[in-house]
Design the sequence.
């Protein structure tokens, strides 16, 4: 029974591979959107709406942040359960809390970009206020949680 449990750790390969493949596919999608934006900017010339261009650029940034989040999750699971990798110092994951903290910091950045994107796309101040309040609350909770958690270490 012990041998079966010890070998079952290799089931973690499934999410490692899935998130790795997902990050690659998402990176290709972001590149496709960038090329599409570049083409429409060149062919549209000076008639393009700057708000639309900014919103599209922010969407592409969002997509690449998602790629980073997926990669961190894949590498983090690998390091936690399978073995160590040669990664930059800031990416060393030794505990599940390290993985969650890394993901939380990118989630804060991701939500910030979503909010800026919303303010560029819409003129409805009520929608901006509602979304900003919700996003601000999530960011506030994450920042507070991790500031308290890491101040105790």
Sequence:
């Amino acid at each position: 029974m012990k041998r079966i449990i010890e070998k079952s750790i290799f089931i973690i390969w499934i999410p490692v591979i899935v998130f790795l493949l997902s990050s690659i596919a998402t990176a290709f999608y972001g590149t496709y959107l960038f090329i599409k934006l570049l083409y429409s900017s060149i062919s549209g010339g000076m008639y393009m709406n700057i708000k639309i261009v900014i919103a599209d650029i922010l969407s592409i940034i969002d997509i690449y942040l998602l790629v980073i989040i997926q990669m961190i999750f894949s590498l983090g699971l690998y390091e936690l359960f399978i073995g160590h990798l040669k990664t930059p110092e800031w990416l060393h994951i030794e505990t599940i809390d390290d993985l969650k903290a890394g993901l939380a910091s990118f989630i804060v950045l991701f939500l910030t970009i979503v909010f800026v994107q919303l303010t560029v796309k819409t003129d409805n101040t009520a929608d901006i206020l509602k979304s900003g309040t919700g996003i601000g609350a999530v960011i506030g909770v994450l920042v507070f949680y991790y500031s308290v958690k890491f101040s105790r270490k």
Q: What stands out?
A: The chain has five helices and no strands. The CA atoms of residues 10 and 95 lie 18 Å apart. The mean pLDDT is 85. The longest helix spans residues 13-44.
